Amino acid sequence: MPDTQARPPATRSAGRGVRPTGVERTFGRDELIVSKTDLRGVITYANDVFLRVSDYDLDQVVGQPHNLIRHPDMPRAVFALLWRTLAAGQELFAYINNLAADGAHYWVLAHVTPSYGTDGSVVGYHSNRRSPAPGAIRQVAPLYQRLLAEERRYPTAKAAVEASSRLLDELVAEQAPSYDEFIWSVINREER
Questions:
Q1: Residues 6 or more apart from 188 whose CB is under 8 A from it?
Q2: Which end of the chain, N or C, is less packed with Cβ atoms under 10 Å?
C-alpha cells in the first residue's frame, strides 16, 4: 500500500523550491526507508523505498544534503536535538514529516544512528524509517506546531532554534523524563 492518494505531476526539482501540496503519502508497515550519509549529512545511499516514497531518482539524492527532504513544517529544534544526540555518539528515534519532490509529505518514525569505521571512529550516519501509527502523529503534531510557532517569533535561525529547543525540553519534561522516553511512550500507547 504505497500511496493512499493519487500523486500530482512530479516537479523533479532539486528539493529546495518544492512547495507542499497537502497530499499525504504513506508506505507499507512492512517497508523500511533506509539512507546513509557522511558526517556532514550528505546522502551516500538511499534504498528503493526512499526513492519511491520521496519521488526522487537516485542521482537526484546521492551527493545532496539529507535536508533535501525537510518539510517546512518541521521544527528546527527536532533537528538540533538529532545532531546533538548524534554528536554524542547516541542513537535517536524521532517522528519526522518529510517533503517529497512532488510536494507530497510523508511521516516517518526515524531511527538514526552513527556509523562506525573499522578504527571505531564515526564515519557517517544511518537511518531506518518506518511508517508511524496515525495516532502517534496526532500526538506529536500539536507539539511540533507549538515549536514552529515559537520559532516564528524570532528574527534569526539561531535564536529560533535556541528558543524552540528550550520549549521542546519543557514540553517533553511535562510528559516524560527525557525525549527518548517521550517517544517510547508515544510508541507504546500506539501498540496497545
A1: none
A2: C
**Contact by Cβ (8 Å): 61, 68:** yes
CA atoms of 69 and 80, how far apart (whole Å): 16
- Check residue 13 and give its pLDDT: 39
Instruction: Please name every residue paired with 124 in a beta bridge, in sequence order, or none if there are none.
Output: 115
- Answer for the pair 64, 41: CB distance below 8 angstroms, yes or no: no
**H or E segment to which residue 105 belongs:** strand 105-116
Q: Which grid coordinates belong to 154?
A: 524570532
Q: Specify the CATH number for 33-191; select among 3.40.50.300, 3.30.450.20, 3.80.30.20, 3.30.70.120.
A: 3.30.450.20
| Residue 73 scores a pLDDT above 80 | yes
Instruction: Report the amino acid identity of residue 7.
Output: R
